[in-house]
Design goal:
Helix content of chain A: over 70%
Number of strands of chain B: 13
Number of domains of chain A: 2
Order of helices and strands of chain A: HHHHHHHHHHHHHHHHHHHH
Strand content of chain A: under 5%
Shape of chain B: elongated
Structural class of chain A: mainly alpha
Distance between the termini of chain A: 45 Å
Pfam families (chain B): ABC_tran (PF00005), DrrA1-3_C (PF13732)
Family (chain B): Belongs to the ABC transporter superfamily.
GO molecular function (chain B): ATP binding
CATH superfamily of the largest domain in chain B: P-loop containing nucleotide triphosphate hydrolases
Radius of gyration of chain A: 25 Å
Oligomer: heterodimer
InterPro entries (chain B): AAA+_ATPase, ABC_transporter-like_ATP-bd, ABC_transporter-like_CS, ABC_transporter_ATP-binding, DrrA1/2-like_C, P-loop_NTPase
Main location (chain B): membrane
Largest sheet of chain A: none
Radius of gyration of chain B: 23 Å
Distance between the termini of chain B: 35 Å
Largest interface: A-B, 38 and 40 residues
CATH class of the largest domain in chain B: Alpha Beta
Helix content of chain B: 25-40%
Number of helices of chain B: 10
Chain lengths: ~525, ~300
């Protein structure tokens, strides 16, 4: 354990840029949710209505948690937020512990550290202490935020404790997987898969008898029922799990060699498959993992949006005054809701598009492109290989959104024809999403060093225009600069093909211009 | 410029700058077909920039380049079918195995030779089923070398290909290059390992700050530089230290040690002969000495050798 304190200080320093943002994000989530919920469900009648709606809608329970939480307004806020925030904070723990232990070991940095006067267990102890401190901070912050929005102190302390302890379970879990696998990627991957499993168990349990939820740390946290029953004893479960997992991690650490895991890495293919033979095969291989992740996330987001559609209609039926604020009026509440959520998801799809283009630029800066371009692969082919992923990947992203939202929505209203309708509506954004990615390609061609800044600026700009265009009353020309503003808001609006054709042509022109730049410039600078 | 058939590549007055940094400043280089040409210079002297221009990855600011009868920028893809390249800093995709990288690059280059690939894997003792993230620097280097050597091409562009290899693998590499030479293929070998260049190269070009300062066969280069002489005579030695072309003389009555510009060797020997030479050793300069002289502490000494 020698050197733990010094290492902890060093780790805090390395995390100082990322950690505050996680905590700030979590604080903002609770702050907005608490304000919004108290606004919407301020009266016991509203809450009772919500509870009867939620109990009749399995999708809502699956996404959020046990309906019993809806017995009080505080519980309602926990119902909406806790599961989601627990996942976010668990991911923070997984990445932090994985990075500081196996990640450093894999890159060889830990070798340098361990050659100094530092004990074998010190890096693990410091990483867990770091995660514990971050979780404690998250708990205190969440407790303070909800108290500040007017919720009772005693229950809020329980909520804060759950916020700290549940994600910390995943820090301890990552400490174990970090001993098992040699590559940091496998450590993150296995821990994230277990987190997904924990969420799924909780979802299945809450929708059923509740028994399965007791197998999930997220379920434990929700079963404290803050503001409803205020039980403290479920906190013992994650605490016990942390103790067991930490002991296991230390025992495994003591039995393994530095740099090695207990699971030997699977050997890869000694010979490349037939598909891995050109620029296209390479680009898909390099980008498929990231694409799969984005698609999974977008399907989940779509499911979440879609499952709430039906409740949205009921809510507006109960509060007709709200309908005035909806673009489609009371008659078309659901179409307004679908149009809005699809537009928001399409913005995320465009973020994926830009990240895919920047991956292409990353191939160049990392030196990989040099080896490829020194073969018979032309610059056009190299770019086309990666662009095929970007263009097809963004298409798949919109399909994922449409399918998730369409299927969940179709289930909640028992109307299967909604699936193709919602998928079609999502695909209407394809030209807009493509054009944003194409701006990234243009920047990569002419201002390669500024490509990342340019790509993300465009995404951010479109998001601001879409989200705040109305409330900030932005001038018309600022909106006209966003391709999303030219996309008809299907299914609320009729599908008008003309702007979509124009956006596709603009995309083509931007891609051609980007290639023209790439063709004439130095590679790798 | 039309390359004559026996010239594999010719570069003249090549210049390239990146912003305010001048990487190449009028570089000349000629490599004839079938030779192993050493391209020598310290880090940052412009070797890699030159090779990247030859690959059409960078665009020259001025000067002419012709390679295998084509223009590297305009005809990049056609020329790449006829050459193989080993980058100086081999970076591989971390999640892809060594075997897959070798196959991918071979297929992208065209005409992959599976037998040759497997032979090379064995010679270099590389496990092709491991993911690139687990390879050491030397193993990454082997992947790039095998990918290049397994392909049936006319020209090999090797940028410090043996950095990170152990002496055993270094000798395997030298065998492979000797074999390539026997097959009549051309090699441009950038290096700062001079023993390697001396063992392999027919001709060398030494560059400094983006310019070629010496070029020729090792014998020619030696002729232009100094030879170390140790001599013992019957009569006392006088006046040798003041002769033109003699440097760093240490005289002890009947014993002397000095360096002499090779062009002045005859005059010095004539002067020594009447003194009754009892023993004489003459050592031609090693490439290392030539190299150090160009980059040594004394910049006034840095010009092409010969009478000063």
């Amino acid at each position: 354990m020698t050197g733990t304190l010094g290492l902890l200080r060093f780790m805090l320093r390395r995390e100082r840029r990322g950690l505050p943002w996680w905590l700030l994000g979590v604080a903002l989530l609770w702050l907005t949710q608490s304000g919004q919920s108290q606004n919407l469900y301020g009266t016991p009648e509203d809450l009772a209505e919500l509870r009867s709606t939620a109990e009749g809608n399995a999708a809502v329970v699956v996404m959020n948690g046990p309906a019993r939480l809806l017995d009080s307004i505080g519980g309602e806020i926990v119902f909406e937020m806790f599961g989601f925030v627990a996942v976010v904070l668990a991911l923070m723990n997984i990445f932090m512990v994985g990075r500081q232990t196996r990640g450093d070991e894999e890159t060889g940095r830990a070798e340098l550290i361990r050659s100094a006067r530092v004990g074998r267990r010190a890096p693990l102890a410091a990483a867990l202490a770091l995660a514990g401190a971050a979780d404690l901070a998250a708990g205190v912050i969440v407790c303070a935020v909800v108290v500040a929005t007017g919720l009772p102190v005693g229950s809020s302390v329980l909520l804060g404790a759950a916020t700290a302890v549940v994600p910390a379970t995943f820090a301890a879990l990552t400490a174990v997987t970090a001993q098992l696998f040699e590559s940091a990627r496998s450590v993150y991957g296995s821990a994230a898969a277990l987190l997904g499993g924990a969420f799924a168990l909780r979802a299945a349990g809450d929708a059923g008898s509740g028994a399965l939820s007791w197998l999930s740390p997220i379920g434990w946290g929700q079963r404290i029922y803050p503001y409803v029953a205020d039980r403290w004893w479920p906190l013992l479960l994650p605490l016990a799990a942390i103790a067991v997992l930490t002991t296991m991690a230390v025992a495994l650490l003591d039995r393994r060699d530095f740099g090695h895991g207990l699971v030997a890495p699977r050997p890869g293919r000694p010979v490349a498959s037939a598909a891995f033979s050109n620029a296209y095969g390479l680009a898909w291989r390099l980008q498929r993992t990231a694409l799969t992740g984005w698609l999974a996330g977008l399907v989940l987001l779509g499911l979440a949006y879609g499952s709430m559609g039906d409740s949205m209609q009921q809510y507006v039926d109960d509060h007709p005054e709200i309908a005035e604020f909806l673009p489609g009026g009371a008659a078309r509440v659901l179409d307004s809701y679908l149009a809005l959520t699809i537009a928001l998801s399409a913005l995320i799809a465009s973020a994926y598009g830009v990240s895919s283009v920047l991956r292409t630029r990353g191939e160049e800066t990392s030196g990989h492109a040099e080896s490829v371009l020194a073969t018979r692969t032309s610059r056009l082919r190299w770019l086309a290989g990666h662009l095929s992923v970007t263009l097809a990947g963004t298409t798949l992203a919109l399909v994922a959104i449409g399918l998730g939202e369409g299927v969940a929505y179709a289930l909640s209203v028992s109307d299967a024809t909604q699936v193709p309708r919602v998928v079609g509506a999502a695909l209407a954004y394809l030209p807009a999403v493509w054009s944003v990615a194409a701006v990234g390609v243009l920047a990569m061609g002419w201002l390669p060093r500024a490509a990342a800044a340019a790509g993300w600026t465009v995404v951010g700009y479109c998001a601001i225009v879409s989200l705040f265009g109305d409330s900030f009353d932005l001038p018309g020309w600022t909106r006209a600069a966003s391709p999303f503003d030219h996309t008809p808001q299907v299914p609320l609006d009729a599908l008008d093909a003309a702007p979509l054709v124009v956006l596709t042509l603009i995309t083509g022109a931007l891609l051609a211009a980007g290639y023209a730049g790439l063709r004439r410039r130095d590679i790798g600078y | 410029m039309n390359a004559s058939p026996e010239v594999a590549l010719r570069v003249s007055a090549l210049s390239k700058s990146f912003g305010r940094v001048t990487a190449l400043d009028g570089l000349d280089l000629t490599v004839t077909t079938g030779e192993v040409h050493g391209f020598l210079g310290p880090n940052g002297s412009g070797k890699t920039t030159t090779i990247r221009i030859l690959l059409g990855l960078l665009r020259a600011d001025s000067g002419t380049v012709s390679m295998l009868g084509g223009d590297p920028w305009r005809d990049a893809v056609d020329l790449h079918a006829r050459l193989a390249y080993v980058p100086g800093d081999v970076t591989l995709w971390p999640g892809v195995t060594g075997g897959e990288v070798i196959d991918l690059l071979g297929r992208m280059r065209g005409r992959p030779d599976r037998r040759r690939r497997d032979d090379l894997l064995e010679m270099f003792d590389l496990d092709p089923s491991r993911k690139a993230r687990t390879y050491s620097k030397g193993n990454r280097q082997k992947v790039a070398l095998i990918a290049a050597l397994a392909s049936d091409v006319e020209l090999l562009l090797l940028d410090e290909p043996t950095s990170g290899l152990d002496p055993l693998m270094e000798s395997v590499f030298q065998q492979c290059i000797q074999e390539v030479r026997k097959q009549g293929r051309t090699v441009l070998l950038s290096s700062h390992i001079l023993a390697e260049a001396e063992a392999l190269c027919d001709r060398v070009s030494i560059i400094r700050r983006g310019r070629t300062v010496e070029t020729g066969t090792l014998a020619e280069l030696r002729h232009l530089t100094r030879t170390s002489i140790t001599v013992e005579t019957r009569d006392p030695i006088t006046g040798v230290e003041t002769m033109p072309g003699v440097h760093d003389a240490v005289l002890e009555t009947r014993h002397a040690r000095f360096d002499v510009d090779t062009a002045q060797l005859e005059a010095v020997v004539c002067r020594l002969a009447p003194l009754g030479v009892r023993s004489l050793t003459s050592t031609p300069p090693t490439l290392e000495e030539m190299f150090l002289r160009h980059y040594g502490a004394d910049p006034a000494d840095g010009g092409a050798g010969g009478a000063s």
